[in-house]
């Protein structure tokens, strides 16, 4: 069975107070039900130690980015091995904000995937098209290219560490969301790409990201190829985040 994952990306938000209040509340509320979901908190790197300390067994922790290198004179960078050493199990790779604002290329994304997998992290590979690309009928081509390049060097024994998050760029932080049918269609296309590469496509978890909220999560997660969500703003509210976790099918 594919892993069911709901990951909260705090982006450049947070404080020690938020960690103390939100992580503890989420941990406590998740203890009251078990639908098989893996809940992941992905804070800014400065707060990773604090989140790890608060997380307990019900929460996993990730980082928002890792370097292309394992060590060296790269001021300001964080290696995948460092993240693992600090208690992280996940890392985002190739988030649209990294691609758009910092010029991260498909080649850099592939290198970061390699670093993450080598260090034992689960790489949550973010892919997605802009509104212009969608309107031009290029959405599937763009996403297919991003997936193929990101996983080109994934070895046969490492697919269990690969998660792909489809996040249409036009739906991130805008309040707009792809319909459940639209999201499912792209997830099915991603799974077909993985199959064409010889990957165990039915075992790779695919997440949807793009203004997921408590009131639309159930419809999205009910789709056959959507295995959870990459949550932005709603992950900064404990009640909203827990409600989204509860929306994963299989809730007891």
Automatic annotation (TrEMBL):
<feature type="binding site">
    <location>
        <position position="173"/>
    </location>
    <ligand>
        <name>substrate</name>
    </ligand>
</feature>
<keyword id="KW-0312">Gluconeogenesis</keyword>
<dbReference type="InterPro" id="IPR022896">
    <property type="entry name" value="TrioseP_Isoase_bac/euk"/>
</dbReference>
<dbReference type="GO" id="GO:0006096">
    <property type="term" value="P:glycolytic process"/>
</dbReference>
<comment type="pathway">
    <text>Carbohydrate metabolism; erythritol degradation.</text>
</comment>
<comment type="subunit">
    <text>Homodimer.</text>
</comment>
<dbReference type="GO" id="GO:0005829">
    <property type="term" value="C:cytosol"/>
</dbReference>
<dbReference type="InterPro" id="IPR035990">
    <property type="entry name" value="TIM_sf"/>
</dbReference>
<dbReference type="GO" id="GO:0046166">
    <property type="term" value="P:glyceraldehyde-3-phosphate biosynthetic process"/>
</dbReference>
<dbReference type="Pfam" id="PF00121">
    <property type="entry name" value="TIM"/>
</dbReference>
<dbReference type="GO" id="GO:0006094">
    <property type="term" value="P:gluconeogenesis"/>
</dbReference>
<dbReference type="GO" id="GO:0004807">
    <property type="term" value="F:triose-phosphate isomerase activity"/>
</dbReference>
<comment type="similarity">
    <text>Belongs to the triosephosphate isomerase family.</text>
</comment>
<feature type="binding site">
    <location>
        <begin position="232"/>
        <end position="233"/>
    </location>
    <ligand>
        <name>substrate</name>
    </ligand>
</feature>
<dbReference type="GO" id="GO:0019563">
    <property type="term" value="P:glycerol catabolic process"/>
</dbReference>
<feature type="active site" description="Electrophile">
    <location>
        <position position="95"/>
    </location>
</feature>
<feature type="binding site">
    <location>
        <begin position="9"/>
        <end position="11"/>
    </location>
    <ligand>
        <name>substrate</name>
    </ligand>
</feature>
<keyword id="KW-0413">Isomerase</keyword>
<dbReference type="InterPro" id="IPR013785">
    <property type="entry name" value="Aldolase_TIM"/>
</dbReference>
<comment type="pathway">
    <text>Carbohydrate biosynthesis; gluconeogenesis.</text>
</comment>
<keyword id="KW-0324">Glycolysis</keyword>
<protein>
    <recommendedName>
        <fullName>Triosephosphate isomerase</fullName>
        <ecNumber>5.3.1.1</ecNumber>
    </recommendedName>
</protein>
<feature type="active site" description="Proton acceptor">
    <location>
        <position position="167"/>
    </location>
</feature>
<dbReference type="InterPro" id="IPR000652">
    <property type="entry name" value="Triosephosphate_isomerase"/>
</dbReference>
<comment type="function">
    <text>Involved in the gluconeogenesis. Catalyzes stereospecifically the conversion of dihydroxyacetone phosphate (DHAP) to D-glyceraldehyde-3-phosphate (G3P).</text>
</comment>
<dbReference type="InterPro" id="IPR020861">
    <property type="entry name" value="Triosephosphate_isomerase_AS"/>
</dbReference>
<keyword id="KW-0963">Cytoplasm</keyword>
<feature type="binding site">
    <location>
        <position position="211"/>
    </location>
    <ligand>
        <name>substrate</name>
    </ligand>
</feature>
